[in-house]
Amino acid sequence: MTHPFEIRPDLDEGIDRKVLTQLKSRFLALNDRRLARAREGLSTRQQSVLALLPLLFHVNHPLLPGYVSGSTPAGVSNFEPDAQVLAEAQRLTRSFSYKARPGHVTQPILGLFLMGSLGTLAQADQSDMDVWVCHDSELSAEAIAELRRKCQALEAWAETQGSEAHFFLIDPQRFRQGERDTQLSSDDCGTTQHYLLLDEFYRTAIWLAGRTPMWWMVPVYEESRYEQYTHTLLSKRFIRADEVLDLGHLAHIPAGEFVGAGLWQLFKGIESPYKSVLKLLLIEVYASEYPRVRCLSLRYKEAVFAHQQDPDELDPYVVAYRRIEEHLLARNEPERLELVRHSLYLKVNKKLSGRQRSSGWQRPLMEQLTAEWGWDERQLALLDSRQHWKVRQVSHERRSLVNELNYSYRFLTQFARLQQTASSITTRDMNVLGRRLYAAFERKAGKIELINPGIAPDLAEDTLTLVHSSNRREPGKNQWSLYNGNLGIHEYENFLPIKRSRELVELLAWVHRNGVIDASTRLALHPGSSDLSELELFNLIGALQQSIALPLPAISDEQLLKASEPREILLLVNVGVDPLRHHRELNILMTTERTDSLSYAGVRDNLVLTLDQVTLNSWNETQVSRYDGPHALLDCLTDLLGSLPEGAQQPQVRVRCFCHNRAQAIAQRVEEIVATARQLQATGLNYRYLIQIQQQYHILAMLPGTMTQVVVNSLPGLFTYLGEELPCYSPLYFDPHALEDHDLSLIAPYGQPECIQVFYRVNDTRADLYVLDEHNALWHQNLPWHDEQSLLLPLQRFFHSLIYRRGASLPLDGPQEQAALDVLYYQLLPGGAGRARNIEPRPAPRASDKAFFEVQAIIEESSPGQLNTSLYCDSQEFSELEQGDQLYTVVARQILGRRHEPARYRCYITDLDLSGLLDDGHGQTILYLRHKARLEKLLNEALDQA
């Protein structure tokens, strides 16, 4: 059924010139409304700039802005200035008089169009003017160069009038073929998108002067026959060729454009996530519809043909929001929808709460939308106070934003694999972007999490209180806590801290890196049982500020092509510890001058009790490591030497000590040890460096061995034995008569290096799951069986995260074998209790487009031999430091509270970081599987009891 006012100019039924004229009038009427809205939001001088642009491209006059020479291409097709525009020009230059151009003179400027947010819901005071200057394809290279100089002169003039303008030269013929030389807007990702940019042009551009788009005249149902339809319009003179310009159609958008444009938005989203969320979601909508993509410009054109001309409902941002809303409601994803609403509201930036109410046409439209969303005054006030957001609100927002950016990256990479499409963004660029996301947002042990990716302008607090206290959830352990305000010794227990940490340096690094403290912040200290003084605290913060000077320089692609390397290393000795107070017998020796801090005055004990290492690497990641105990210096030195890159570019290593006694001597001694060790390492020889501590010699040297594993018979604890870590790939052999009726006899010959292989066999309601990892270690689990997808997909997600982490630790411009582990799947047949006879390859499980609940775990060593676990459920942190022995119970309740389905089902760990336990930054897959199974057992037991 057609709309009563719908225009249907059909080729088969004949095209009516009167109908086409009416159709053009509809587009121009809507255009005039949007142009009026754009002017309304501009200052008087900015309005003058916008009004004069067609005239300035129409004539060459030495007294007008933008004049280059008399030979500069000039003349806007079908344009004649009205009296108001001429009056504006004479206000600039009183001696200017306009002479109409003779009819036979060529007019090489085919059309002028205003792009960007002007005239839309998102127009703001700082919105710039992106103007497409469409010119004749016959212009010579010299003429185009002249025209470009004119554009540059006009940009400079506009700046003097309070306008930021950008002009982009468009050759319509070359544009239709996908050729262009430069960016076409300030938000353009270059050649990685063509049709998506054209889609944006058709639904957002405001026509200023010249010819109108041919695309307006083609009904949506004829888009696939665009060339034939437009040829008929021109050849039969339904439309004159000098009335229109043709930039092409949108019948088909290549899959690669969604990947390219999406990854570009992800790149921008690392710094400004709110601005990218809307575009990322729109790309997701389009990609989800592929190959039958019904882009927004087609909806817009369809609405105009149907005489739906409400400028509010056809506003580009409202149209985009409505389509995203449809998509997320259909997927039942209310949390993501709420984030989209936040992003739109903050993008529009028209405050609706209290006395902050804004004026203009945008305010009533936003009021209508927020009323639909059910937002109350409190919600509006919170968003309107974004300029004053501090740590708590920023941390809350960050979880949603980072989840969305990570989800988009997974969606786009999966889409690229499924469509097997070649994007104009190369695999290299995709990997570099993946590393940018990793560096900005990925969690790992000891890494300082950045909480403010463009969310709020300033997190610095006026006053903070730092407290050292016992941890009631871990008897015998202490913690450091940071609170808002200046709290007394008996007050802080009544407040929730901003941040807790077991170690002081980790907390101070977090405070500094996130800008929570600046030069004006007043810091109160309650040192508790520590030896920390206010002077030491002041010096520690100063050392961090010196070593990690903010803001950090941008990371280049070249840096991301290589594995991350340390750039600045700060070693802090005896933080909050007075070594002489801990060794009282040493006080009597204070007078002697011949003392060695590593073997003080010949006494067994040394004065280096703790070391905190703060590392800033080439990806701008900040890592904190803690070493204590009698071997603290050796452990620290071993890790430090192992992290140093090869080649000339070595990190600067600073050693600082601010403890109460002998701080300078201790720092100097450690500095000497580090310098000597680095010099020996630089020779390239395999030195064994001996350090005397507590009258023992420790040798820092270890070389991996090789082995071949031979199992000749069934052994007790076979799975435990075969699941031990191996230094390298080790083939697995069985005696022909050993375990001949066991699944292992079929699985063992499949082992291959640098490959993860998954085998499963179904037995009624259970399934045996086997994994041979890259070194051929064997893992086994018996799990509930529902279907292949639910059994294998959680494991595939886990392996994807594992391989992603490994890939981030290797150079992209070198061999990638260690990272690119293949994951293969097999089924043992037949199922049941009898003997398996054969193994059948299975395809990798296909990821569902349904969002899944992420549970990430970080395991690190809190003290020698004691592991500490932190769990992140959709980026919300839960740790033993906060929840103690109730950790898994609390997380289980969180998971159940987020599930929409009433049925109980297993929870899986989707990502695991063990870098805090591993010397080389990554370990063998079998180790991850072992920890994964242990955590899942604890979580699922807690789920059953919740």
- Classify the helix fraction into a percent range: 25-40%
Please, how many helices?
A: 28
Strand order of the largest sheet: 21-20-19-22-23
Cα distance spanning the termini: 55 Å
* Shape verdict: globular
- What's the count of strands? 27
Describe the structure.
With 946 residues, the protein is an alpha/beta fold. Helices cover 38% and strands 17% of the residues. It is built from 28 helices and 27 strands. The strands form eight sheets. A five-stranded mixed sheet has the order 21-20-19-22-23. Strands 3-2-1-4 form a four-stranded mixed sheet. The chain has a four-stranded mixed sheet with strand order 9-8-7-10, covered by helices on one side. Residues 588-594 and 686-716 have low confidence and may be disordered.
Brief description of this entry?
Among the domains are: 17-253, no CATH class; 531-699, no CATH class; 709-795 and 811-842, no CATH class; 855-945, no CATH class. Helices cover 38% and strands 17% of the residues. The strands form 8 sheets. It has a 5-stranded mixed sheet. It has a 4-stranded mixed sheet with strand order 3-2-1-4. A 4-stranded mixed sheet has the order 9-8-7-10, covered by helices on one side.
